[in-house]
Amino acid sequence: MSERTAEEWGRVAVGLPGWRWMPGMRVRNGDVRQWGTLTAVHPDGHVDYWDPEFEEHFTGKHPSWLDIDPDDPATAGCLLALLGPYACSLHDAEGWMAGVGSPAGAKFRVTHSGSSLGRACIAAAEAIGRWPGGDL
């Protein structure tokens, strides 16, 4: 099986139930293809993001037009948070590993590896079928 592209990993992440946009995620406007950073996520679905090319903030109505960067460390931290409070990560010679456990540690639900922490988190969520956010 060939490795997915960053864009494909991002689409998987956003497409899973339980997904939510979080400030700090590195995003790319699908039309402009310029990377920026989410600075705010509003309850009505609007997002604000910083575009370094224009050196200003923009607001968008539909976050679905944004791609995420699963290889960005800040975005990976957001993805780990979406796995929930019992998620953990590990880096070794083989790459990154992300897993989700239970409060008592009695059941360890899923562990998956990837070439970046973000990709490992997405793989773990995909194996579960959703972003659990701590609810296994």
Key terms:
136 residues, alpha+beta, three-stranded antiparallel β-sheet, 3 helices
Topology:
Blueprint: H1 6-15, E1 26-29, E2 35-41, E3 47-51, E4 56-60, E5 66-68, H2 73-83, E6 87-92, E7 95-100, E8 110-114, H3 117-128
Antiparallel strand pairs: 1-2, 1-5, 2-3, 3-4, 6-7, 7-8
Structure description:
The protein is of the alpha+beta class. It is about 25% helix and about 30% strand. It has helices spanning about 5-15, 75-85, 115-130, and strands spanning about 25-30, 35-40, 45-50, 55-60, 65-70, 85-90, 95-100, 110-115. The strands form two sheets. Strands 4-3-2-1-5 form a five-stranded antiparallel β-sheet. A three-stranded antiparallel β-sheet has the order 6-7-8, with helices on one face. A hairpin with a 5-residue loop joins strand 1 (about 25-30) and strand 2. Helix 1 packs parallel to helix 3. The longest helix is centred in the C-terminal third of the chain and has 12 residues, at about 115-130. It starts with 5 loop residues before the first helix and ends in an 8-residue tail after the last helix.
- Shape type: globular
Strand content: 25-35%
Helix content: 10-25%
**Compute the gyration radius: what is it?**
15 Å
The residue-averaged pLDDT reads 81
| Biggest sheet layout | 5 strands, antiparallel
Strands in their spatial order, largest beta sheet = 4-3-2-1-5
